[in-house]
Amino acid sequence: PSPALCATAATAAWFLAASKHRQRRQLRCGQQAAEDGLAEEWEEQRVFWQNLWSQPEDSQDGQEDTPVDLLTRKRVMILISDTGGGHRASAKALADAIEELYPGQIETAIRDVWTEDCPWPFNNVVKQYMWMAKHTWSWRMFWYWSKFPISRWFMQRMANARCRKVFRQAMEADSPDLVISVHPGTQHITLKVLKAMARQKRQSRIPFVTVVTDLGSAHPMWFHPEADRVFVPSRQVRDLALRC
Questions:
Q1: What share of the chain is helix, strand, coil (3-state, %, to 5)?
Q2: Kind and range of the H or E element at 130?
Q3: Do 176 and 76 meet the contact criterion of CB atoms below 8 Å apart?
Q4: 65-69 long-range contacts, Cβ below 8 Å, gap at least 24?
Q5: How far apart, in Å, are the Cα atoms of 104 and each of 49, 51, 176?
Q6: Residue 243 three-state SS
Q7: What is the DSSP letter of 69?
Q8: Percent of the chain, pLDDT > 90?
């Protein structure tokens, strides 16, 4: 081969080697950035939960350990709807985890306000769900109908008009320090009630957290921009949440 051809081949080989080196370096940088971002996110979560349960007296040194008084125990309210067994099972798992992490310090209540307190037809949602589970065409129709923004707005307005009062009564009766939702139907109305209570009492809104229990996909009603934290089970659901 000619010297020019050899030089061209050598230049091309060098260029390919350099390109692969840059790609490996960019990949390592991207992985490092992702790890740094994940570590930062975990640190934010740690600070959030630490500040949530901390009290002014926690910073005082030299105090002896004393039993937690029942009147000073923190209260967590977990909202569900028994439309399927997964939501209650998730709520029980959360309650068990909280008790394990904070033994004897936190009182947890699992509430299905829709079934327990709401008027008709909302108190029949479990029966309606069971019927739709047997007639999949109706479940599919309800899914897309409640996903469409205009029909979802109408449905939420109707629910607020009929059930906001009983949701507030449930909040005031339990007087929680934290509200956790493990059902897509308990974001919008609950946050409305919590904001109204905060305005009237002129105090900070009770923290509200969503724990998404759907693994592969999730209905848009799971996600509310005013939730303090939203925990998702997969990157796919995370990407879906960011688009809502």
A1: 65, 10, 25
A2: helix 125-134
A3: yes
A4: 67/104, 68/104, 68/105
A5: 17, 19, 16
A6: helix
A7: P
A8: 30
Euclidean distance between CA atoms 107 and 77, whole angstroms: 9
φ, ψ for residue 193 (rounded to 5)? -65, -45
Structure tokens at 70: 């029942």
Mean pLDDT estimate for the chain: 77
CA distances from 210 to 120, 180, 183, 185, 206 (A): 26, 6, 8, 11, 13
- Can you tell me the distance from the alpha carbon of 238 to that of 221, in angstroms, rounded to the nearest whole number? 14
In tens, the pLDDT along 35-92 reads 555 566 656 666 665 666 554 444 444 444 545 555 578 899 999 987 776 788 899 9
- How far is residue 18's CA from residue 69's CA, in Å, rounded to a whole number? 67
Contact by Cβ (8 Å): 208, 191 = yes
DSSP label of 59: G
Whether residue 111 has pLDDT greater than 50 = yes
Cα–Cα dist 182/169, whole Å:
20
DSSP tag of 116: H
Kindly tell me the burial class for residue 203, based on how many C-beta atoms sit within 10 Å of its own C-beta (0-12, 13-18, 19 or more): exposed
pTM: 0.69
Q: Measured on CA atoms in the order 85, 90, 95, 101, is the torsion positive or negative? A: positive
Query: Within 13 A of 44's CA, how many CA atoms are on the CB side?
Result: 8
The number of helix segments (H) and strand segments (E) in the chain equals: 8, 5
